[in-house]
């Protein structure tokens, strides 16, 4: 029974060692994930700035796919880890199997919407024919064949919930490396392969996701005995589904807000030039390279907090939150320093023209100011999810990306100075920080303060 629950590791191991043990493999795998997103844009930028703009405009769609998958996984894992802490294995298996049902249904919806509405999505944003055509092809491939990413993330979350994050790292890293290898081969037609251009970038992406999917299935089957998946158990339990979505839906919305923000910002920036939109696309990839380690840290922290919440261990919960905040701030500070010092060198990697350099240098230096404030609300959003307070996570992100960012950017854009528009990002982060502080106070008083009292 002890082998099944691993309660000594999650509930007894010193929190610093535990956070490193659980989070480091996730951080590495997510860093690799962010790396291949950057590499993807690098190879596409070698085709043309138009191709780069197409992929940049497709980013919100790709982000929604990841948001749905990761959000569903967050909802599932919050209850998986808590049930493991309570030693309730029958419920653990029910949650895991109902989670798989939700992942499969999410893929079906994604494929249908992608097949039907990809062209409309690009036509709404721009009348540049080449951007619409290449963007539509790219997005259709990524959506219709997205089954790999959904199933990959499902099995990664099973591994993470049970503390087997090294296997989770292997799952994601394999797919990322496959993508990096196939990107230039399929984009430029190397080694006898057809030169597919933007379609090649999309194809390399889904090949990598499919490989990750198969690796995740195999590792769970042979190495993860804590969770039992079976066709006989794939029966919807609407009470469990409701519980999963009580955390998953706000988490999905939190992550999807980045897509809404990107779509809105693209509309504002296209009013200046398509190059400005391409710069935003590059920045979002660079930002993900900094944020992915923080998300990895959060993904490791959530099951630890949820497990100790189930075991009612207040001191361990407080220690892990403090350590996570400190670690996240250090990561963001390093990212800020790199972007401030090397903005031009980074842009040149993407074959930037003089116009793109002129816009991008200023944009990156201004927008990256948000890193100095963002670590607290990012970590707190994950903390709220671990306690089942998904609405608080949603509220923090809504404040930042909808209530403040887009309106401020729109108002500033009316002055006609593109450089001023970028200020909307750090301004919005101030409000996000204030909102996170308010909700932390509420969570501490209602949930954490009396946790060690019977």
Largest sheet, if any?
Answer: none
How does the overall form come out from the CA principal axes? globular
User: Whole-number average pLDDT?
Assistant: 85
Distance between the termini: 26 Å
What class, by secondary structure content?
A: mainly alpha
Tell me the strand percentage band: under 5%
Helix-strand pattern, N to C?
Answer: HHHHHHHHHHHHHHHHH
Unreliable spans: 1-8
Helicity range: over 70%
Radius of gyration: 21 Å
Task: Let me know the number of strands.
Answer: 0
Helical segment count: 17
Quick overview:
With 454 residues, this protein is mostly helical. The protein has 17 helices and no strands.
General description of the model:
The chain is an all-alpha fold. Helices cover 85% and strands 0% of the residues. The protein has 17 helices and no strands. Helix 5 packs antiparallel against helix 6 (129-144), helix 11 (274-310) runs antiparallel to helix 12 (314-349) and helix 11 packs across helix 14 (371-386). The chain is globular, with a radius of gyration of 21 Å. The two termini are 26 Å apart. Residues 1-8 have low confidence and may be disordered.
SSE arrangement:
Blueprint (H helix, E strand, L loop, with lengths): L1 H4 L1 H6 L2 H31 L3 H37 L3 H37 L3 H16 L2 H15 L3 H24 L9 H26 L14 H33 L3 H37 L3 H36 L4 H14 L3 H16 L3 H24 L4 H4 L2 H25 L6
Helix pairs in contact: 3-8, 3-11, 3-12, 4-5, 4-6, 4-7, 4-10, 4-11, 5-6, 5-7, 5-10, 6-9, 7-8, 7-9, 8-9, 10-11, 10-15, 11-12, 11-13, 11-14, 12-13, 12-14, 14-15, 14-17, 15-17
